[in-house]
Design goal:
The protein has one domain: TATA-Binding Protein (2-Layer Sandwich). It is about 45% helix and about 30% strand.
């Protein structure tokens, strides 16, 4: 029996941060080294939407951890560069 896990996460952001961070993360989402997981990143207004589909919980956890850390890092850099810290 094949299992499939799907998680959708919406993260509200200020200004154009969602668009800027989405462009940066699409590169990562489109070049994942594993065939066990797919990731979609989209900006919808001021909300970044992350959708992770995985064949198992281990791949799901690893992908979510990586993308949330990348999102946090990119958001911190964006705030620093835009002077909103």
């Amino acid at each position: 029996m094949e299992r499939h896990v799907k998680v959708s996460i919406s993260i509200p952001m200020e200004g154009k941060a969602s668009e800027i961070i989405t462009r940066a993360l699409k590169v990562e989402a489109d070049s994942l080294p594993s065939k066990r997981v797919t990731v979609s990143v989209e900006a919808s207004g001021c909300v970044l939407k992350l959708e992770v589909n995985a064949n198992d919980l281990t791949a799901m956890r690893a992908s979510i951890n990586s993308f949330l850390r990348w999102i946090d890092s990119a958001l911190q850099v964006h705030k620093l560069v835009s002077g909103k810290d």
